Amino acid sequence: QFLMANKLDTAMWISRLFTVYCSALFVLPLLGLHEAASFYQRALLANALTSALRLHQRLPHFQLSRAFLAQALLEDSCHYLLYSLIFVNSYPVTMSIFPVLLFSLLHAATYTKKVLDARSSHSLPFLRNLLEKLNANQQNILKFIACNEIFLMPATVFMLFSGQGSLLQPFIYYRFLTLRYSSRRNPYCRTLFTELRIVVEHLITKPSCPVFVRRLCLSGISFISRLAPTVA
Protein backbone atom coordinates (compact mmCIF):
# COMPACT_ATOMS: atom_id res chain seq x y z
CA GLN A 1 0.00 0.00 0.00
CA PHE A 2 2.85 2.38 0.84
CA LEU A 3 4.56 1.69 -2.51
CA MET A 4 1.34 2.10 -4.50
CA ALA A 5 0.49 5.34 -2.67
CA ASN A 6 3.89 6.81 -3.67
CA LYS A 7 4.21 5.60 -7.25
CA LEU A 8 6.71 8.20 -8.48
CA ASP A 9 9.00 7.78 -5.45
CA THR A 10 8.75 3.99 -5.83
CA ALA A 11 9.67 4.20 -9.53
CA MET A 12 12.74 6.28 -8.63
CA TRP A 13 13.63 3.82 -5.86
CA ILE A 14 13.53 0.89 -8.32
CA SER A 15 15.56 2.79 -10.95
CA ARG A 16 18.15 3.74 -8.30
CA LEU A 17 18.47 0.13 -7.16
CA PHE A 18 18.94 -0.88 -10.81
CA THR A 19 21.58 1.85 -11.17
CA VAL A 20 23.44 0.49 -8.13
CA TYR A 21 23.22 -3.06 -9.55
CA CYS A 22 24.55 -2.06 -13.00
CA SER A 23 27.26 0.20 -11.56
CA ALA A 24 28.48 -2.59 -9.26
CA LEU A 25 28.70 -5.01 -12.21
CA PHE A 26 30.73 -2.44 -14.14
CA VAL A 27 33.15 -1.72 -11.27
CA LEU A 28 33.43 -5.46 -10.49
CA PRO A 29 33.24 -7.11 -13.96
CA LEU A 30 32.10 -10.53 -12.74
CA LEU A 31 30.40 -11.27 -16.08
CA GLY A 32 33.37 -10.25 -18.24
CA LEU A 33 34.83 -7.00 -19.60
CA HIS A 34 32.55 -6.92 -22.66
CA GLU A 35 29.44 -7.11 -20.51
CA ALA A 36 30.88 -4.50 -18.12
CA ALA A 37 30.75 -1.84 -20.87
CA SER A 38 27.05 -2.50 -21.43
CA PHE A 39 26.38 -2.27 -17.67
CA TYR A 40 28.15 1.12 -17.72
CA GLN A 41 25.65 2.42 -20.28
CA ARG A 42 22.69 0.86 -18.48
CA ALA A 43 23.72 2.49 -15.20
CA LEU A 44 23.93 5.93 -16.82
CA LEU A 45 20.62 5.47 -18.67
CA ALA A 46 18.92 4.36 -15.43
CA ASN A 47 20.41 7.41 -13.69
CA ALA A 48 19.11 9.64 -16.51
CA LEU A 49 15.64 8.15 -16.00
CA THR A 50 15.81 8.75 -12.23
CA SER A 51 17.00 12.33 -12.76
CA ALA A 52 14.21 13.00 -15.28
CA LEU A 53 11.59 11.64 -12.85
CA ARG A 54 13.01 13.69 -10.00
CA LEU A 55 13.08 16.82 -12.17
CA HIS A 56 9.46 16.20 -13.12
CA GLN A 57 8.64 15.86 -9.42
CA ARG A 58 10.37 19.17 -8.62
CA LEU A 59 9.03 21.04 -11.69
CA PRO A 60 5.81 19.26 -12.75
CA HIS A 61 4.59 21.91 -15.23
CA PHE A 62 6.92 21.88 -18.25
CA GLN A 63 7.17 25.10 -20.23
CA LEU A 64 9.22 25.83 -23.31
CA SER A 65 10.67 29.08 -22.02
CA ARG A 66 13.97 30.58 -20.89
CA ALA A 67 12.62 31.10 -17.35
CA PHE A 68 11.70 27.40 -17.02
CA LEU A 69 15.13 26.33 -18.34
CA ALA A 70 16.86 28.66 -15.86
CA GLN A 71 14.76 27.17 -13.05
CA ALA A 72 15.52 23.61 -14.20
CA LEU A 73 19.29 24.30 -14.25
CA LEU A 74 19.13 25.15 -10.55
CA GLU A 75 18.00 21.59 -9.76
CA ASP A 76 20.57 18.90 -8.92
CA SER A 77 18.47 16.35 -10.82
CA CYS A 78 18.93 18.40 -13.99
CA HIS A 79 22.69 18.47 -13.39
CA TYR A 80 22.85 14.67 -13.23
CA LEU A 81 20.56 14.26 -16.21
CA LEU A 82 23.14 16.30 -18.14
CA TYR A 83 25.94 14.26 -16.53
CA SER A 84 24.42 10.98 -17.73
CA LEU A 85 24.04 12.33 -21.27
CA ILE A 86 27.68 13.50 -21.30
CA PHE A 87 29.11 10.06 -20.47
CA VAL A 88 26.53 7.55 -21.74
CA ASN A 89 28.08 7.23 -25.21
CA SER A 90 31.69 7.91 -24.20
CA TYR A 91 34.53 5.51 -23.50
CA PRO A 92 33.76 3.83 -20.11
CA VAL A 93 35.58 5.67 -17.31
CA THR A 94 35.46 4.16 -13.81
CA MET A 95 35.69 7.60 -12.16
CA SER A 96 32.51 8.74 -13.92
CA ILE A 97 30.40 5.89 -12.52
CA PHE A 98 31.16 6.54 -8.82
CA PRO A 99 28.98 9.68 -8.43
CA VAL A 100 26.08 7.86 -10.10
CA LEU A 101 26.58 4.75 -7.96
CA LEU A 102 26.95 6.60 -4.66
CA PHE A 103 24.11 9.08 -5.15
CA SER A 104 21.80 6.22 -6.14
CA LEU A 105 22.94 4.22 -3.12
CA LEU A 106 22.33 7.10 -0.68
CA HIS A 107 18.87 7.95 -2.05
CA ALA A 108 17.86 4.29 -2.35
CA ALA A 109 18.96 3.70 1.26
CA THR A 110 16.81 6.62 2.49
CA TYR A 111 13.72 5.30 0.71
CA THR A 112 14.44 1.71 1.76
CA LYS A 113 14.30 2.87 5.39
CA LYS A 114 10.87 4.43 4.72
CA VAL A 115 9.69 1.15 3.18
CA LEU A 116 10.93 -0.79 6.23
CA ASP A 117 9.23 1.69 8.58
CA ALA A 118 5.97 1.30 6.65
CA ARG A 119 6.22 -2.47 7.02
CA SER A 120 7.21 -2.58 10.71
CA SER A 121 9.34 -0.49 13.04
CA HIS A 122 11.49 -3.52 13.93
CA SER A 123 11.69 -5.36 10.59
CA LEU A 124 15.02 -6.59 9.20
CA PRO A 125 17.35 -5.21 11.93
CA PHE A 126 20.50 -6.27 10.03
CA LEU A 127 19.49 -4.22 6.97
CA ARG A 128 18.52 -1.28 9.20
CA ASN A 129 21.96 -1.41 10.81
CA LEU A 130 23.63 -1.25 7.37
CA LEU A 131 21.44 1.68 6.34
CA GLU A 132 22.30 3.56 9.54
CA LYS A 133 26.04 3.05 8.94
CA LEU A 134 25.63 4.34 5.40
CA ASN A 135 23.75 7.37 6.67
CA ALA A 136 26.43 8.02 9.31
CA ASN A 137 29.04 8.25 6.53
CA GLN A 138 26.90 10.41 4.26
CA GLN A 139 29.06 13.51 4.58
CA ASN A 140 32.26 11.63 3.64
CA ILE A 141 30.48 10.01 0.69
CA LEU A 142 29.24 13.39 -0.57
CA LYS A 143 32.77 14.79 -0.31
CA PHE A 144 34.11 11.81 -2.26
CA ILE A 145 31.47 12.42 -4.96
CA ALA A 146 32.46 16.11 -5.16
CA CYS A 147 36.12 15.08 -5.47
CA ASN A 148 35.18 12.81 -8.39
CA GLU A 149 33.23 15.63 -10.04
CA ILE A 150 36.27 17.95 -9.84
CA PHE A 151 38.92 15.52 -11.05
CA LEU A 152 36.77 14.35 -13.94
CA MET A 153 37.39 17.75 -15.55
CA PRO A 154 41.12 17.11 -16.26
CA ALA A 155 40.20 13.49 -17.04
CA THR A 156 37.91 14.61 -19.92
CA VAL A 157 40.78 16.73 -21.32
CA PHE A 158 43.15 13.75 -21.05
CA MET A 159 40.57 11.53 -22.80
CA LEU A 160 40.36 14.07 -25.63
CA PHE A 161 44.13 14.01 -26.23
CA SER A 162 44.29 10.22 -25.91
CA GLY A 163 41.60 9.82 -28.58
CA GLN A 164 38.96 8.39 -26.22
CA GLY A 165 36.78 11.48 -25.90
CA SER A 166 35.03 13.99 -28.12
CA LEU A 167 35.99 17.63 -28.68
CA LEU A 168 32.76 18.89 -27.07
CA GLN A 169 32.94 16.73 -23.96
CA PRO A 170 35.34 18.93 -21.89
CA PHE A 171 33.31 22.07 -22.69
CA ILE A 172 29.96 20.45 -21.79
CA TYR A 173 31.50 18.92 -18.66
CA TYR A 174 32.85 22.35 -17.65
CA ARG A 175 29.27 23.62 -17.84
CA PHE A 176 28.15 20.72 -15.62
CA LEU A 177 30.91 21.52 -13.12
CA THR A 178 29.88 25.19 -12.92
CA LEU A 179 26.31 24.06 -12.18
CA ARG A 180 27.56 21.77 -9.39
CA TYR A 181 29.72 24.60 -8.00
CA SER A 182 26.65 26.87 -7.88
CA SER A 183 24.31 24.18 -6.48
CA ARG A 184 21.92 25.44 -3.80
CA ARG A 185 21.28 22.01 -2.26
CA ASN A 186 24.76 20.50 -2.39
CA PRO A 187 27.65 22.80 -1.34
CA TYR A 188 30.27 20.04 -1.34
CA CYS A 189 31.75 20.90 -4.74
CA ARG A 190 32.45 24.49 -3.59
CA THR A 191 33.77 23.19 -0.26
CA LEU A 192 36.18 20.77 -1.96
CA PHE A 193 37.50 23.46 -4.31
CA THR A 194 38.20 25.68 -1.27
CA GLU A 195 39.83 22.84 0.68
CA LEU A 196 42.02 21.83 -2.29
CA ARG A 197 43.11 25.46 -2.75
CA ILE A 198 44.05 25.75 0.97
CA VAL A 199 46.05 22.48 0.83
CA VAL A 200 47.93 23.49 -2.35
CA GLU A 201 48.68 26.99 -1.02
CA HIS A 202 49.95 25.47 2.23
CA LEU A 203 52.28 23.08 0.37
CA ILE A 204 53.73 25.67 -2.02
CA THR A 205 54.57 28.12 0.79
CA LYS A 206 57.04 25.62 2.26
CA PRO A 207 60.72 26.53 1.65
CA SER A 208 61.38 23.08 0.15
CA CYS A 209 58.93 23.77 -2.71
CA PRO A 210 60.78 24.68 -5.98
CA VAL A 211 60.08 28.19 -7.28
CA PHE A 212 58.83 27.01 -10.70
CA VAL A 213 56.34 24.63 -9.01
CA ARG A 214 55.12 27.49 -6.79
CA ARG A 215 54.63 29.78 -9.80
CA LEU A 216 52.91 27.02 -11.77
CA CYS A 217 50.50 26.28 -8.90
CA LEU A 218 49.71 29.97 -8.32
CA SER A 219 49.01 30.42 -12.04
CA GLY A 220 46.74 27.34 -11.96
CA ILE A 221 44.86 28.64 -8.90
CA SER A 222 44.44 32.06 -10.52
CA PHE A 223 43.18 30.48 -13.77
CA ILE A 224 40.66 28.21 -12.01
CA SER A 225 39.46 31.11 -9.81
CA ARG A 226 38.71 33.18 -12.93
CA LEU A 227 36.67 30.29 -14.38
CA ALA A 228 34.62 29.83 -11.20
CA PRO A 229 31.06 31.17 -11.45
CA THR A 230 29.72 33.75 -9.01
CA VAL A 231 27.47 32.22 -6.38
CA ALA A 232 24.59 34.29 -5.03
Quick summary:
By secondary structure, the chain is an all-alpha fold.
Using brief descriptors, characterize the structure shown:
2 domains; globular; 232 residues; mainly alpha
What does this structure look like?
The chain is an all-alpha fold and 232 residues long. It has 2 domains: 1-185, no CATH class; 187-231. 77% of the residues lie in helices and 0% in strands. The protein has 11 helices and no strands. The chain has helices at 2-5, 7-27, 33-58, 66-72, 76-87, 94-119, 125-136, 138-161, 169-181, 188-204, 211-227. Helix 6 crosses helix 7 (125-136), helix 8 runs antiparallel to helix 9 and helix 8 crosses helix 10. The longest helix is centred in the first third of the chain and has 26 residues, at 33-58. It is found in: Membrane. It is a multi-pass membrane protein. Belongs to the PER33/POM33 family.
Total beta strands:
0
Q: Mean pLDDT, as a whole number? A: 89
Quickly count the domains.
2
SSE order, as H and E? HHHHHHHHHHH
Largest sheet features = none
Count of individual helical segments: 11
Share in helix = over 70%
Shape from CA axes? Answer: globular
Radius of gyration: 20 Å
Distance between the termini: 42 Å
Low-confidence stretches: none
Strand content: under 5%
What is the oligomer described by this structure?
single chain
Structural class: mainly alpha
